């Protein structure tokens, strides 16, 4: 459909933070959405005389920003929240793998719906799921996850994960929870071919995503990188999360995680890694030189006592950085607003103190930075004419925010602001702080039923 014939939605009288290259903001401005694109944006009232306007929204008392972009998550963990609450990463993994190894398609679907609903109602318009547990006979887990995202109406990247280093090879997962090298590669290729859409306005993309250096073989990393580059898709994994991982890499491979990744083809502008907490200056320089992206997950890093990622140093070096909720077994909140706020607050506890990050940098991490690490910065992540219409109207004139001096400060430093409207690809997903694409109460009920079913199966052994 040509833009001139597309249905138009006009939002006006709102504060706007575009998060474009100049951080352009309007104290009172407008956005015109035509079809699935932003047609125009600016200060003051929308242009007169536009045709085919199907909706005109008074944004008084609101801040409009790009939709939030989540860059690291494990949806299945929605049904294993609140367990092993006082463990570090390795002990937490060992405690939870026997439960995770029992998941099936119905559980994964309900967990995906719960994870997606929590994020979408909090302003996430692009979600991702790094799914790496594929027990034998568990059904079409990738299809269930992608279906849940499509039903919710959010833009989505599935990072098709895998594990092939189990207990018998010195890894942490139980033997029956992993795939073979050949099986993992074949299933990943099939998922890319079936679901990945490379077009500008794609709603579903797929990345190649072996789980972590300590749960996959060197060969799976190497061949996974070759597969991704042959298919033209991105690569994702966990990296440099804890001191224990660093020790593991040094003992097993004779080098730290970043050098190990470089030796297996895992640094590059088509790669993004979760965490990157334990990085020295040369690691950060290697990420900057190669354009490797980072998914910063401050709440999960705090819960698992992993440490504080050096985000100000990464940004200063030019490393692309986005935010990640991480799985909700290590971040029960499951909403991205917490990560904007914690990125800002936790980094101020590090070496740079109050100069670490400001509210606008935190908003940029959660929007444009996320789009960069997902390889979609040309399409989403900022509000600019021609980009896709993924945006959020935050209500900032209510009790939580009406006395905070500045709109961006209000949504980052303040409580999670109610979402009056979110658009994904030009279509409403949230209206008046409720999801309109799915029944939130039914999602909550189904997820609880599946969590209880999983707990029963585990209890029965
Ligand atoms: Zn993770």
UniProtKB/TrEMBL annotation:
Keyword terms of this UniProt record: Hydrolase
UniProt xrefs under InterPro entries: Amidohydro-rel (IPR006680), Metal-dep_hydrolase_composite (IPR011059), Metal_Hydrolase (IPR032466), MTA/SAH_deaminase (IPR050287)
SUPFAM superfamilies the record matches: Composite domain of metallo-dependent hydrolases (SSF51338), Metallo-dependent hydrolases (SSF51556)
Keyword Hydrolase found: yes
Domain Amidohydrolase-related positions: 63-428
Pfam families, A to Z: Amidohydro_1
Gene3D superfamilies on file: Metal-dependent hydrolases (3.20.20.140), Urease, subunit C, domain 1 (2.30.40.10)
NCBIfam families per the UniProt record, alphabetical: PRK08203.1 (NF006055)
PANTHER family xref list: AMIDOHYDROLASE-RELATED DOMAIN-CONTAINING PROTEIN (PTHR43794:SF11), AMINOHYDROLASE SSNA-RELATED (PTHR43794)
The protein's name: 8-oxoguanine deaminase
